[in-house]
Amino acid sequence: MGDGRYGIHPPTMQAIARAVAAVQAMGVQVGVVVGGGNIFRGIAASAEGMDRASADYMGMLATVMNSLALQDAMEKLGCVTRVQSAIAMQELCEPYIRRRAVRHLEKGRIVIFAAGTGNPYFTTDTAAALRGMEIGAQILMKATKVDGVYSADPKKDLAAVRFDRLSYIEVLRRGLKVMDSTAISLCMDHDLSILVFDIQDPENIVRAVRGEAIGTIVGGAAAAQ
Q: How far apart, in Å, are the Cα atoms of 70 and each of 74, 75, 135?
């Protein structure tokens, strides 16, 4: 949503699309998991009294809207993409089928995974960890509004310290707000490294894939390198 408070900011979406397209042009297979918080946040709605399951399903539908918008932006750049949804809606996108997703990646297509896991009470973070493991991803890149993981909220605590590397256990023990605990535990159980970086500069996507030192790496073999 860029600098806005709601909805889709086309210039921001186009900048992200260009960065992902540049990564694909490097010969990297790319899967993208899109959230929906710019349109609807299930957790926030449930805190206001809405049934949690209903709120989460609405949030999943918001991710589909974002996925279709990103697909449109990427295809205008000449990228071949497929949107796969965990909730069946065949008129809009493919159903999520792991083997089909892997095949798309092998053919050089960008796969956008929509609708989270298809289940309420699970976040988009967990969906990203799950899809990453299913497709055999080498690393999970978590795009945020900060340039890594801090000991506290850097906007509220001037003494907050940014970490270059962390173990999964450290993240869980310290209660650091990297991803939700379910996603962290899934990555830990299957040794899937996580890179947390700032997407406010979309070029960081390319820098991260090139191996430049940005953000914070959590766990896995990558953290030891």
A: 6, 9, 20
